[in-house]
Amino acid sequence: MKYLYFLLCLFFLVIHETNAQKRRVLVLTDIEADPDDAQSLVRFLTYSSQWDIEGLIATTSIHQKNWAAVETIHTIVDAYGKVQPNLLKHESGYPTALFLKTKIKKGLEKYGMEGVGEGKDSEGSDWIIKVLETNDARPVWVCVWGGSNCLAQALWKIQKTKSGEQAEKLYKKLRVYTISDQDDSNPWIRKTFPRIFFVVSPGYTYQNATWRGINAKAEGFNNEVFSNQWLTDNIQQRHSILGTMYPDVAYGMEGDTPTFMGLIPNGLNDPENPNFGGWGGRYELYIPTFEAPKPNPYFKVPHTEEPETRPIWTNANDSLFSLIDKKSHAGNLETILRWREDFQNDFAARMDWTTKSFHEANHPPSPKLNHSDHITVKSGEQFFLDAKGTTDPDGDALSYVWMQYREAGTYPANVSFRPYAANMYRVPFTAPKVESAKTIHFILKVTDKGTPALSRYKRVIVTVIP
To answer: S-S: 61 plus which of 146, 287, 335, 337, CB 3.0-4.6 Å?
Structure first.
């Protein structure tokens, strides 16, 4: 009996530790304003094993000012429920549709700040407060795909009804990533609550927004992986009822998806450090220079824009060499473009999971480091980066590439490997000469030879001291 009790305690301890590793995620979506929200929701649900979903809230936006289409969320979640048993054959942790439906809420059907203030509560804003008040120390990642007035109302009520200390505890839990500014409550939140963690490419015009890297046609990058034909073959057709819920592209494929791509635990993403870069892009903390708004071809609604009053996590540039056109490319879109083929293949594999058995489908490799992921070396010292012992659950052959992510570190120059770091699981590097401590980020990318080819990563941060 004591032994059984011990096993039960151990079981619940493991479950607790597993849950503690998952991130709490809440989505605000102006679904039906554009097909891309439904597209993003389909992808989001195929990764629902990766996090604890705290809410799926229908909202308005500048594109859909008086309708919160909560019924569409229910329809897509119902379709997910039909494939959830098959998804569990590939990975544990997929929640039931019944559970997810308890998280679906509706925001006030008012535009922007018209929906913020006395008497403007909704089941959506009340739910956000309830989620923040839950006795759970983990941050709440709020992915805003449309307008944010539902979040603004929750914050307004917290400010009005809580003590300063109580409110601050709730604000500190928030991690907000909004897809540009799709109503006037978004800038209001940034100005009124300056200590809230906030990722955004500010403004209504979108042209310079980092999130566009998911669907921008760009020279030197694989544009085929978001074409209509690719989506038909890999997502929509012959990939279960959930795939049929993925609508055709109108303005652009999945513009909202970068809000959660950086939350996927793939070995590269580090959400608490947006400047490290990952599938959702790379962002730096600063007050961006104000630019007068330009006409937005997607809508004609009067709006004003003002300078930012606080540092935000916003656009950052990456520079990389493309093996496709043999040229260097630089810009903020590149922070997403550089991973696009990887995350599209990953989505395609998960759609396979909705219909295929484990042995018929592909699964990502499991990279392993034979040393710490934080290393300190002296100038001129040689060190080996070693991934021996990396495995693949399907027994596939593996390819290895070590790369320096220069912009993520504080060392300003490139570090050369000897020999070239492709196709080797163990490579040496020599620490450069520095006058003060500098960090260098090395990324191991392991790709299997399954179909579609899947990649996972390990990040090694090397601190070089004089």
So the answer is: 146
